């Protein structure tokens, strides 16, 4: 009898406890763009306590034609590789229950395009804009972009790492 009373008291306490409040929203600190609208990248992001974090390792582009993966032409230019890499990231996020809108931080590593003799920063930004600060995803990210001498293979021009956060399910 005493055990039943203790169990009932514990249950009553648990039921009377206030529901956990949802964590505060992610604070995306915008930077002004040249037209007065929010800029392409954020100044920073504040993630309140209670969010789940997914750190995604660096990802590279997939070949345009999976049967061909030997030359740079098989992977495309910087814009093509950026789009391919973000598409891959989007799929990896979704497989873990995240969305591209959950990305808060990106580190971009760009190698020089031999056809240009330098990195194609405009091509990278053009590919980036297809997924961030777009009609489908108005969110953008805190981002660092690095020019590197080489990536793991000379066919790659872009490697991207991202961090995504989401509020835990209730």
What can you tell me about this protein's structure?
- With 170 residues, this protein is an alpha+beta fold.
- It has one domain: RutC-like (60s Ribosomal Protein L30, Chain: A), CATH 3.30.1330.40.
- The protein has 3 helices and 6 strands, in the order αβββαβαββ.
- The strands form 2 sheets. Strands 3-6-4-5 form a 4-stranded mixed sheet, with helices on one face. Strands 1-2 form a two-stranded antiparallel ribbon.
- Helix 3 links the parallel strand 4 and strand 5 (142-148).
- The mean pLDDT is 89.
CATH topology: 60s Ribosomal Protein L30, Chain: A
CATH-derived architecture = 2-Layer Sandwich
Helix-strand sequence: HEEEHEHEE
Taking strands numbered 1, 2, ... along the chain, how are they ordered across the largest sheet?
A: 3-6-4-5
Globally, the shape reads: globular
Radius of gyration using CA atoms only: 22 Å
Number of strands: 6
Q: Helix amount, in percent? A: 10-25%
Distance from first to last alpha carbon = 34 Å
Structural class: alpha+beta
How many structural domains can be distinguished in the coordinates?
Answer: 1
**How many helices does DSSP assign?**
3
Percentage of β-strand residues = 25-35%
Signal peptide: 1-21
InterPro entries: RutC-like_sf (IPR035959), YjgF/YER057c/UK114 (IPR006175)
GO molecular function: deaminase activity; endonuclease activity
Protein name: Endonuclease
């Amino acid at each position: 009898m005493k055990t039943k009373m203790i169990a009932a008291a514990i249950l009553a306490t648990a039921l009377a406890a206030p529901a956990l409040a949802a964590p505060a929203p992610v604070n995306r600190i915008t930077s002004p763009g040249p037209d007065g609208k929010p800029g392409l990248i954020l100044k920073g992001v504040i993630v309140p306590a209670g969010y789940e974090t997914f750190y995604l390792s660096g990802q590279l582009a997939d070949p345009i034609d999976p049967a061909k993966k030997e030359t740079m032409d098989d992977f495309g230019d910087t814009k093509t590789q950026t789009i391919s890499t973000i598409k891959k990231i989007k799929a990896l996020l979704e497989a873990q229950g995240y969305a591209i809108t959950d990305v808060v931080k990106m580190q971009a590593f760009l190698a020089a395009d031999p056809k240009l003799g330098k990195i194609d920063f405009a091509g990278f930004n053009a590919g980036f804009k297809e997924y961030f600060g777009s009609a489908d995803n108005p969110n953008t990210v805190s981002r660092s972009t690095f020019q590197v001498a080489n990536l793991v293979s000379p066919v790659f021009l872009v490697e991207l790492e991202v961090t995504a956060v989401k509020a835990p399910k209730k």
